[in-house]
UniProtKB/TrEMBL annotation:
Record-linked InterPro entries: Amidohydrolase, Bact_exopeptidase_dim_dom, Peptidase_M20, Peptidase_M20_dimer
Lineage: Bacteria, Bacillati, Bacillota, Clostridia, Eubacteriales
Name this polypeptide is given: Amidohydrolase
Origin: domain of life: Bacteria
Domain Peptidase M20 dimerisation residues, every copy: 189-282
NCBIfam families referenced in this protein's UniProt entry, alphabetically: amidohydrolases
CDD domains assigned: M20_Acy1
Length: 394
């Protein structure tokens, strides 16, 4: 089947859906309109679904072709926007002040709907099941976790899962693929350092938390430079340092916050432990005290080796091997699809959406972000072809 031809036949419909989502962005789990629009589409197409994770949706298409052993593949799309002002001058710019689809989730949702429409129309041509998972809160706490907890990977059991993210740095019509680790694990942290306040002219009467905090910041830089292998990517970034109210007052406390990003489970655990040890030791040496909170955020995203090889073959047949970029290095960004990848064999790819001639060059999470909408049928076709081949031939 030529899924690219089939996807282009509904391209105009999908562009209108994407633009509607773009005009009406919603955040986190508060995706009431977005979720409603997705449900309305599924109902029109006669696709069964259920609501999960507050505003998330699990849809299922049941193939009609007889089979000895039934398999199930899932397609995942995230739906939420970002708290950002849309500064584009387009017909579909955001109507919601301070909210914007600046990461392409509107396109991801649209592509999943397009794939659902096509695969539902040919369900007599494949066996097994296709689940389409619409995830809320990817940009915040990760809607994947409550979706998994509510059983979206069960009944029927999901054998594999695919997902994608638009990439403005790659030309429309191309994709990027990588095996093994694709995205980093993240651990945000907060440190509060307690000292003793005093007049700025009498520092000897204080235990200066600003000085202590400054030494902590410097000491933490050795975590990556001297304690993690240079061949294993890791990042410790201090994002905020706050304390004090006036030039002549030594405050009683300061707060520091930042992130840890790692590519290996062992590095993740090691860096967390050493951050606590280093911070407590430095603070104690300067006679202060501290409170440390390290949060468990997204894990590493792993592409399964067999799924990677399988998807490469499918993508090559769908868009041509010349349009596939083989990515060597993982990104230090994070992606909540990682939770799914820890549960089932997974494949996550990047979908080119950039177009320099049309000025579509601005990075994700920026107020001018946009996509070349020609990428939508490409993503739909790849979703469809992967599901079809997995269920019938893999």
């Amino acid at each position: 089947m030529d899924f690219l031809v089939m996807s282009n036949k509904i391209k105009d419909e999908l562009i209108e859906i994407r633009r509607d989502f773009h005009r009406n962005p919603e955040l986190g789990f508060e995706l009431h309109r977005t979720s409603q629009k997705v449900r309305e589409f599924l109902e029109r197409e006669g696709i069964e679904y259920r609501v999960v994770a507050q505003t998330g949706i699990e849809a299922i298409i049941r193939g009609k072709k007889p089979t000895v052993k039934e398999k199930t593949i899932a397609i995942r799309a995230d739906m939420d926007a970002l708290p950002l002002m849309d500064k584009k001058n387009t017909l579909y710019s955001s109507k919601e002040l301070g909210k914007m689809h600046a990461c392409g989730h509107d396109a991801h949702t649209t592509m999943a709907l397009g794939a659902a429409k096509i695969m539902n129309s040919i369900k007599s041509e494949f066996s097994g099941n296709i689940k389409v998972l619409f995830e809320p809160a990817e940009e915040t706490v990760g809607g994947a976790r409550p979706m998994i907890a509510e059983g979206v990977l069960e009944n029927p059991y999901v054998d594999a899962i695919i997902g994608c993210h638009v990439d403005e740095g790659s030309p429309v019509g191309t994709i990027g693929i990588k095996n093994d680790v694709v995205y980093a694990a993240s651990n945000p942290f907060n440190i509060t350092i307690y000292g003793k306040g005093a007049h700025g002219a009498s520092p000897h009467k204080s235990i200066d938390p600003i000085v202590i905090g400054s030494n902590v910041v410097v000491a933490l830089q050795t975590l990556v430079s001297r304690e993690v292998s240079p061949t294993s990517p890791a990042v410790v970034t201090i994002g905020t340092f706050n304390g004090g109210t006036a030039q002549n007052i030594i405050p009683e406390e300061v707060t520091i916050s930042g992130i840890i990003r790692t590519m290996k489970l062992e590095d993740r655990q090691y860096v967390k432990e050493r951050l606590v040890e280093i911070t407590e030791s430095v603070v104690k040496a300067f006679r202060g005290s501290c409170k440390i909170d390290i949060q468990e955020s997204y894990p590493c995203l792993y592409n399964d080796d067999n799924m990677y090889k399988f998807f490469h073959k499918v993508a090559s047949n769908t868009i041509g091997d010349e349009n596939i970029n083989f990515v060597k290095d993982p990104t230090m960004g994070v992606e909540s699809f990682a939770y799914f990848s820890l549960e089932r064999p997974a494949m996550f790819y990047w979908l080119g959406c950039g177009n320099k001639e049309r000025g579509i060059i601005h990075p994700a999470h920026s107020s001018l972000f946009d996509i070349d909408e020609d990428c939508i049928p490409v993503g739909v076709a790849l979703h469809c072809a992967t599901a079809y081949e997995f269920l019938n031939n893999n």
